Amino acid sequence: MNSVSIGLLLPNSTVTPMGKDFEKGLKKALHDLQDSWEIEIIPEFIAEGSRDKADQAINKCLSYHDVDVVSGILSNKVIGALSDKMEKSNKAFLFSNMGEYVPDMNLISPSVYLNSTNVWQHVWALGNWGVKEFGPKGMFVSGLYDAGYSFAMMLQMGMKAGSDQATMPFAVAPVPSPGAAADVAAVFQHIETFAPDFVFAAFCGDEAALFLEEYIKRGYHKRIPLLGLPLLIQPFTGAAEECVVYSAFTAAAEDQAEPDSARPEDFADKQFFNLGYESGLLLKEALKKGEPKKIKNSLAEVTIRSSRGSLSALAGKQGSASRIFLIKNTLGINGELSREVQGELETIFIDDPKLKEILALPSSGWFNPYPAV
Questions:
Q1: How far is residue 150's CA from residue 312's CA, in Å, rounded to a whole number?
Q2: Is the previous residue joined to 371 through a cis bond, with omega within 30 degrees of 0?
Q3: Measured between alpha carbons, how far is 302 from 7 in angstroms, rounded to an integer?
Q4: pLDDT at residue 254 greater than cutoff 70
Q5: How far is CA 61 from each of CA 55, 81, 230, 267, rounded to the nearest angstrom?
Q6: pLDDT for the residue 57
Q7: Does the pLDDT at position 260 exceed 50?
Q8: pLDDT tens digits, one per residue of 312-355
Q9: Which residues are paired to 44 by β-bridges?
Q10: What is the pLDDT of residues 116-129, one digit of tens each?
Q11: pLDDT computed for residue 283 by the predictor
């Protein structure tokens, strides 16, 4: 019987069980290989997913466990920082994330594989649509941890592409005490002052729930359109009044104009399970092509189908073969949540010259994947 060992880098999160969900998804995808393959999965916990923790875990996977593949969840920033090391090891690496950072292909080796929801594209697309639909003043509000990624940059880029008159005031909730949620209510005085045409909110977990509750309580949901990532509504259990939140969803480029085969509600509610499941499918198809030592090359050749459509793990193709669709999320009084595909949005791709210019500039931010805190 063939055998393969997979080292799994799993970050912790106080927001969502991302590591546990990812591992469950990966195992489900590989389950039907158990009759013909002996599969060893070795979890390595990397706390918040920092560069140092990831580096230590990769060293252990390669030297002590001698795995055939290293997978799991890492931010694009960490993948870029450790890419040279991965390349020299001659092992297969397949990582997943939400795409909180735009991947810099000058730093990420072509032989390091990536499976991402590329939310950086979502944010650009929503900003671009927002100024065209509602007006040029779009406001960015977030918690401290949510502000440390590419969200604000991509929102501003999308808005500027939609209107030369676009402006983006912003507000960040004060730093929380250890173990406590940020003072989300503090951003509302700034919303009142700036009176934006729309708001993009980057909150998740308890802070997202607090923000939505306050947004509705103050009546802003009736007069200021609200945009955000799917995690903004993930903790939703019921609203005082019906509220609409606009988000986005990725479907493969060759799928239909309205992605009937792609289910945005499935992916939004189980993002990390689905990322794990997709990664498992990619590994399964690569294993079908031969022995474990060939996985590094086989991953370049495989394509799988998921709830997002047709996917490849080639890092250089991230966001280059996708279509972004606008989702209208209606939050109901009794806990009902409905999602409707509103149509396709204009977006930006990884080879866009303006994006390359920005990636060439010095930058700083969190190394941890969103929302590993």
A1: 23
A2: yes
A3: 20
A4: no
A5: 10, 18, 33, 29
A6: 98
A7: no
A8: 888 877 766 678 999 999 998 877 888 888 999 999 988 889 88
A9: 9
A10: 999 999 999 999 99
A11: 96
Q: Look up residue 114 and give its two tokens.
A: 């990536």
Both tokens of 227, joined, read: 């945009």
- Domains of the chain, earliest start first: 2-116+263-317 (3.40.50.2300), 120-252+321-359 (3.40.50.2300)
In single-letter form, the type of residue at position 76 comes to N
- Residue found by looking up tokens 């700083």 in the block: 364
> In the block, which residue shows the tokens 């294993």?
287
Query: Which residue's structure tokens are 């977006």?
Result: 347
